[in-house]
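R.M. (postdoc): so does anyone remember the format we settled on? I'll just put the structure tokens first.
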């Protein structure tokens, strides 16, 4: 199916930590549409996350967990997000990285791969 142009970028977060994390863009909590702004990603879970804008940089995404005494985790890659793309991020205790791009698993992936 062909998508409507200019759907805002999104991420798929693979939370490979044991900790529940909240996702921020700069200092703004990403709520993923939750009414009470209490959106969090449990450790070991994969989550589709929206709320980003075209031209925002992946490096400005931060992850926070109460268990982390060493501070926030950030993403090492310097990538400007584009509309109609989904960015796959692997989060570990060392921080976040974009998942490797392969022909079978493109990253970023076309958003139509995730919209049914």
């Amino acid at each position: 199916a062909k998508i409507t142009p200019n759907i805002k970028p999104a991420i798929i977060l693979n939370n490979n930590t044991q900790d529940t994390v909240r996702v921020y863009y700069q200092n703004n909590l990403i709520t993923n549409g939750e009414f009470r702004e209490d959106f969090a990603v449990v450790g070991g879970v994969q989550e589709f996350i929206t709320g980003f804008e075209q031209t925002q940089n992946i490096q400005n995404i931060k992850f926070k967990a109460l268990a982390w005494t060493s501070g926030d985790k950030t993403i090492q890659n310097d990538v400007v997000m584009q509309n109609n793309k989904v960015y796959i991020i692997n989060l570990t205790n060392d921080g976040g990285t974009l998942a490797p791009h392969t022909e079978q698993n493109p990253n970023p992936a076309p958003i139509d791969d995730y919209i049914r």
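R.M.: ...and that's the designed sequence above, right after the tokens. Also worth knowing: The chain has a mean pLDDT of 88. The first strand starts at residue 10 and ends at 15.
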